[in-house]
């Protein structure tokens, strides 16, 4: 018995094209109207102006929608026309058909802006009424049963360490400090600074400015205290004098 291996063309044959598609024409040349001479374009414009081509009447297949005056036309109106239009709307407004509501209004209570516009005494009375005689609401009915196990059974809860040990706390004594040597090493004294460096430290500009500002602030404080005391004495004198 002999075996023959199939080729890729036999296993996956190409689908036969039922209809031959024509190639798409690709024309990148500019339109013929750009190559028209100037005199011919001028004659064509004159012919269209004096003897235009007669076309059949336009047939509308849809009903136009009245959108009113456009915004650009409204801005181009003169001021006196808009004034007369506003006066006409005030004196004899347009009578419109009654409004038909197709949806049922929902009671949302008092709006926040209306609540803020109330006077303070009305808000105070409302709070007192709610505190003394609150509104009785119906009992709250739950539609879902409570969950018995809030925590899963697979969780392992460990008690606190303080609840496991019941013995009193034991404090160990501190470790003894090493004995200090009998003779302490001599502390090196800082070397004396030269006279020029000491004079520079004394004449520090920052410290001098701070001392000057502090002295001026104390003087201003005393002046203001004296001025306030003089006013108090004057007011008391005038009150008892009259």
Summary, kept brief:
By secondary structure, the protein is mainly alpha-helical.
Can you walk through the features of this model?
The longest helix has 37 residues, at 205-241. The mean pLDDT is 77. The protein has helices at residues 8-11, 38-50, 71-75, 79-91, 112-116, 120-132, 161-164, 195-202, 205-241. The chain has a domain at 216-242. It is built from nine helices and no strands. The chain is extended. With 242 residues, it is mostly helical.
Helix run count: 9
* Percent of residues in beta strands: under 5%
Largest sheet: none
Shape: extended
Low-confidence stretches: none
Q: Determine the structural class based on helices, strands and strand pairing.
A: mainly alpha
Computed over alpha carbons, the radius of gyration is 51 Å
- List how many beta strands DSSP finds: 0
Helix and strand pattern: HHHHHHHHH
């Amino acid at each position: 018995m002999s075996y023959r291996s199939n080729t890729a063309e036999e296993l996956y044959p190409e689908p036969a094209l039922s209809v031959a598609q024509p190639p798409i024409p690709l024309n990148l040349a500019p339109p013929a109207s750009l190559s028209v001479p100037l005199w011919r374009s001028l004659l064509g414009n004159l012919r269209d102006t004096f003897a235009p081509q007669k076309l059949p009447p336009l047939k509308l297949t849809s009903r136009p929608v009245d959108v009113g005056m456009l915004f650009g036309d409204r801005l181009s109106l003169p001021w006196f026309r808009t004034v007369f239009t506003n006066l006409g709307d005030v004196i004899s407004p347009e009578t419109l058909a009654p409004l038909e509501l197709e949806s049922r209004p929902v009671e949302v209570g008092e709006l926040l802006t209306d609540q803020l516009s109330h006077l303070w005494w009305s808000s105070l009375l409302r709070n007192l009424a709610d505190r003394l005689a609150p509104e009785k609401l119906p009992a709250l009915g739950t539609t879902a049963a409570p969950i018995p196990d809030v925590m899963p059974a697979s969780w392992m809860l460990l008690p606190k360490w303080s609840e496991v040990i019941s013995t009193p706390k034991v404090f160990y004594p501190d470790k003894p400090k090493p004995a200090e040597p009998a003779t302490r090493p001599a502390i090196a004294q800082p070397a004396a600074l030269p006279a020029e460096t000491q004079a520079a430290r004394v004449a520090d500009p920052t410290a001098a400015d701070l001392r000057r500002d502090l002295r001026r602030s104390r003087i201003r404080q005393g002046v203001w205290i004296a001025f306030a005391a003089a006013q108090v004495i004057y007011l008391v004198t005038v009150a008892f004098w009259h």
